[in-house]
Amino acid sequence: MKVEKLPHELFLKTFEWVPRIAINVHVEDESGAVLLTQRAIEPKKGSWHYPGSFLLKNETIQNCIERVVTTELGAEIESGSELLGVFENLDADPRGHVVDVVYRVKLLGAMHATEETKALQFFHVLPEDISFHHDAVLKSLGF
Asked: Which fold has domain 8-140?
């Protein structure tokens, strides 16, 4: 089956009818700091958040995780991932209701900013400008 991305206007329209599933990746360095990316695109351009993306039609979760790591971190993933939790976001995304699914991953090689990420940074203390309720997610995970 072919993975399909909706045209942007139709994608936005889907939020009127159903929640969307966002797959987010949780990466820690050897000191326990967590990786966040600074958005280079709207919505919430310039804010910090988990690297993530909406699951596409016919895309497996693992393939989505790999796509996120490639498109937002410019890196590759070690085999496997660990489910950390599922979190409901009713109103922190201006587009609508989102169900965030967070997976811990380990990366292979170096990372770099991409077209979708203005910056990548590991944090021991969360920055003030975190979007999409990812601060609440991180706190519930014990960060």
From this structure: Nucleoside Triphosphate Pyrophosphohydrolase (3.90.79)
Report cis status (omega within 30 of 0) of the bond before 43. Answer: yes
Q: Is 126's pLDDT higher than 80?
A: yes
Helix residue spans in 36-104 (DSSP H): 61-73
Query: Model-level pTM?
Result: 0.91
Q: Tell me the average pLDDT across 14-37.
A: 94
Answer yes or no: is pLDDT of 82 > 90. Answer: yes
pLDDT at 134 over 90: yes
Instruction: Spell out the domain ranges in the chain.
Output: 8-140
Strands (E), 27-123: 34-39, 48-49, 52-54, 76-77, 82-89, 98-104, 107-108, 117-123
CA distances, 139 to each of 19, 65, 86, 136, 142 (Å): 23, 22, 13, 5, 5
